[in-house]
Amino acid sequence: MNNTALQLRPAEAPTMMPAMSIQDAVDRHQMVVQFVGAMLKTDIDFGQIPGTNKPTLLKPGAEKLLTFFGLTKRFTVLEKVEDWMGADHGGSFFYYMYRCALYKGDQLIAESDGSCNSHESKYRWRKAERECPACGKAAIIKGRDEYGGGWVCFKKKDGCGAKFRDGDAAIEGQQVGRVANPDIADQVNTIQKMAQKRALIAATLLAVNASEFFTQDIEDMIIEAEAVEVKPSATRPPAVDPRPKTLGELVSPKQLWMIRNLGRETGIDVEEECRTHYSVALEEISKGVASEFIDYLNGKAGRAENIAFSAEPTKTAPALVQQPPANGGSNVTATEFWKSVRKWKVPEEESGNYAEAAAKKEMTWAEALNTLREMYG
After folding, report:
1. 87 vs 115, 124, 244, CA distance in Å?
2. At residue 146, does pLDDT exceed 50?
3. What is the pLDDT of residue 68?
4. Could you say which DSSP state residue 308 is in?
């Protein structure tokens, strides 16, 4: 190797100098940190995927960062395949690759490519369920032996209540499980938008140097809340610095879901409780503080139950002290729900759908549990 080739001539030195001073770089980085903490919201602008060490940047968050830095986006189609009749792919097939270029005025700042195609599993397949021949609803469940067996169009799944015998071809002849999506052409616009979104997020991370805070490529994964057993604590969480040092330490969506659900179950205003003790909003605490807060709330819930059930019933007001019903009663909690569905080995997708419905108050936890008990209990 010719060592002289590694030496810079004086005239070339200025071209290798940084584009900004160290202080400017520090100030820029600090502005990004402050903007992310103040303006980007969990589950809207970014999401924490279990098993990853960085939050995932979502499209709304990327657009806010572009606005903050005064960047504009331009998309270009690099490749596309549109096989509507499926002559070359054994069925309809669509593929798009877009390039997203980000500009500051007329100056190109960053660009990146993103692709999407209809053979990705979320577009290619659908979960087929048995539909009721009478009402057309996908509400068919297996009847329990003690109730005569057969098949039932379950009313709590918006069914009509119709019953069918074991061996009925109208029910058992239906294809169930993973099947090819018969309406893949309806997804063409979605596939195009997904390719653009992937290119946009990748370019944004490059342009604003946000890879320190966020990752991508899993931006369209489903975030599922999972109940975690914790040991109740009877003491107030210790006072610590509640804010995370990095965005990766910010309270996760799973923790927020658990905290708010505990608040609903115990009647505690968790937002106010958090502000009173930590002097910050619930969404601004760290994962560690969130875990302590969950222990604290469980401790308060445990003390409330102990007080209620330790009192002796009196002749004048016997209804004031009642043992809570077993699983399936009217006051089933999220924790009881998850314990039961795991015991029954309910498929995660099935239990997740009912948990989401209960969390959104589309049904109670008891109704969700009773529905799954009919099928798996």
Report:
1. 22, 17, 54
2. yes
3. 93
4. H
Tokens coding 343: 């015991």
Q: What is the pTM of this model?
A: 0.51
Residue 182 neighbours by CB distance under 10 Å: 11
CA distance 141 to 153: 6
pLDDT of 353 higher than 90: no
Q: Which residue has the tokens 């770089």?
A: 25
- 207 has a pLDDT exceeding 70: yes
Using alpha carbons, list the distances in angstroms from residue 291 to 239, 275, 298, 312. 13, 16, 11, 34
State what percent of residues in the chain have pLDDT above 70: 77
Which residue(s) pair with 75 in the sheet?
Answer: 100
Asked whether 54 and 249 are in contact (CB, 8 A), the reply is: no
Q: Which residues contact 357 (CB under 8 A, 6 or more apart)?
A: 363, 368
Angle among Cα 344, 347, 351 to the nearest 5 degrees reads 85
Q: Which of 280, 104, 109, 82 is nearest to 192 (CA)?
A: 82
Q: How far apart are CA 97 and CA 105, in angstroms?
A: 25
Rg of the chain (C-alpha set) = 28
Q: Which of 125, 169, 160 is CA-nearest to residue 139?
A: 160
123 has pLDDT over 80: yes
Q: Is the CB of residue 138 less than 8 Å from the CB of residue 129?
A: yes
Nearest CA to 248 out of 55, 57, 58, 65 is that of 55
Whole-Å CA distances, 169 to 165, 173, 221, 235: 9, 5, 37, 60
Distance CA 169, CA 161 (A): 18
What are 173-202's pLDDT values in tens digits? 998 888 888 888 899 999 999 999 999 999
Whole-number pLDDT of residue 52: 66
Look at residue 234 and give its three-state secondary structure.
coil
Which helix (H) or strand (E) covers residue 111, if one does?
strand 107-117
> Distance between CA atoms of 207 and 78, rounded to whole angstroms?
20
In the numeric block, which tokens belong to residue 213? 């805070």
User: Per residue in 288-333, pLDDT tens?
Assistant: 888 888 877 776 655 444 433 333 343 333 333 333 334 444 577 8
